Amino acid sequence: MLVGGFAESTYVQGKIRRELPELRLVVPEDAGLAVLKGAVIYGHNPSLVVSRIMPYTYGMGGLETFDPKTHFGRDKINKGGRWYVYDWFKIFVKVNEHINVNHRVTHSVSPSHPMLVCAVYRTVLLGPKFTTDKECELLGQLVMRVREDIPLQDQIYDVTFMFGDTELLVTVKDTTTGRENRLTLNCLK
After folding, report:
1. pTM of the full structure
2. Taking Cα atoms as reference points, which of 140, 154, 45, 152 lies closest to residue 101?
3. What does the buried/exposed string (b/e) look like for 82-105 if buried means 16 or more CB atoms within 10 Å of the residue's CB?
4. Superfamily, domain 52-61+88-186
5. Which residues make beta-bridge pairs with 82?
């Protein structure tokens, strides 16, 4: 089905028919207005869209247990007597994954510094390893001061990604106090 501004162009239709002769090309009446009409209908009733296929893999930066075989040459830190690598891409949803609107994914994290920084990334890669990969894009950061009365290794924070219609809502919640911070990102960029 061909819709949108150029759908009624006989030149575009002919070019598509020549390049893809095995496909049946359907051009509805008022094809140029189809996208606009769809946007107006969606604006009046957003509940019409119940799911979508993710155009990117979304995740956050974090630490991963150091493995000398796969992490050779990477910077590492010692946390609680164990070695970790920086800039690990913690996946929340993968590219081409089918998800419902308002789908939530939560992962628990333990801070390694007095300020918990939740850096949100996206990439076209299905299985990214590091946030420093050239295909990864930083979308935003949510910063939260951690508690000083509890050792860092004993603190747990839940990081939740909620995929709305056109937005990604990121929430970081202190599991002990219930205190939370939020960040809303536009997924249409």
Report:
1. 0.78
2. 45
3. eebbbbbbbbbbbbebeeeeebee
4. Substrate Binding Domain Of DNAk; Chain A, domain 1 (2.60.34.10)
5. 79
Nearest alpha-carbon partner for 46 in 187, 165, 133: 165
What gap in Å lies between CA 34 and CA 4, rounded to an integer? Answer: 6
Q: Torsion angle of alpha carbons 77, 79, 85, 89, nearest 10°?
A: -140
Other C-beta atoms lying within 10 Å of the C-beta of residue 106: 12
Phi first, then psi: what are they for 18, rounded to 5°?
A: -70, -40
Task: Please tell me the predicted confidence (pLDDT) of residue 130.
Answer: 94
Q: Compute φ and ψ for 141, nearest 5 degrees.
A: -135, 145
Mean pLDDT by 10 residues, the chain (189 residues): 85 91 87 81 79 93 90 85 91 95 94 91 95 95 93 93 88 95 84
Token couple for 64:
């991963």
Q: Is 30 left (phi over 0), alpha (psi -120 to 50) or beta?
A: left
Alpha-carbon span 143 to 129, nearest angstrom: 23
Domain spans of the chain?
A: 10-48, 52-61+88-186
Using CA atoms, how far apart are residues 87 and 64, in angstroms rounded to an integer? 8
Tokens describing residue 31: 């094809």
